[in-house]
Amino acid sequence: MGRMHSKGKGISKSALPYKKAPPSWVKTTSAEVSEHICRLAKKGLSPSQIGVILRDAHGVPQVCSITGTKILRILKANGFAPALPEDLYHLIKKAVSIRKHLERNRQDKDAKFRLIACEARIHRVSRYYKESQRLPATWRYESATAAALVS
């Protein structure tokens, strides 16, 4: 089945290891990993950026296999969770940049189409987060105030 707002039809993705236990070569403890996560969150990094840094710089293959919980859940427990979910934040950021481009290039019809598709995705994702109560029920995406959300 194809994608809704792009040409892709692929289903390939990376597979996590079947075994839930951490590999034998990992020497970091759960407390150390949680401490690293909180320290990186204080610097203002997103959960996916934290995961990349832990993987590349500290040799942590999967946070969940070591700590037993995911990065975002650790952040929520320590009060460092982002106000907006990460995927919604990046969609809004993309819509703001497309709108900024359209202000300079009014004749760009393709960018206008992409903005409509991007904002449709924002509305769909925000509806999901309202239903799962990760966003307040009164939250609304407004293009006029969107730049303030991502700055």
Give structural notes.
The longest helix is centred in the C-terminal third of the chain and has 23 residues, at 109-131. The two termini are 36 Å apart. It contains 7 helices and no strands. The protein is an all-alpha fold. The model has no long low-confidence stretch (mean pLDDT 92). The chain has helices at 30-42, 47-58, 63-67, 71-78, 86-104, 109-131, 146-150.
Low-confidence stretches: none
Number of helices in the DSSP assignment: 7
One letter per element, helices H and strands E, the order comes to HHHHHHH
- Structural class of the secondary structure composition? mainly alpha
How much of the sequence lies in strands comes to under 5%
Report Rg. Answer: 19 Å
Strands, count: 0
Shape estimate:
elongated
Helix content: 55-70%
Mean pLDDT: 92
**Largest sheet, described in full?**
none
Give the CA-CA distance, first to last residue: 36 Å
Main attributes of the structure:
single chain; 151 residues; mainly alpha; elongated
List the helices and strands and how they pair.
Blueprint (H helix, E strand, L loop, with lengths): L29 H13 L4 H12 L4 H5 L3 H8 L7 H19 L4 H23 L14 H5 L1
Helix pairs in contact: 1-2, 1-4, 5-6
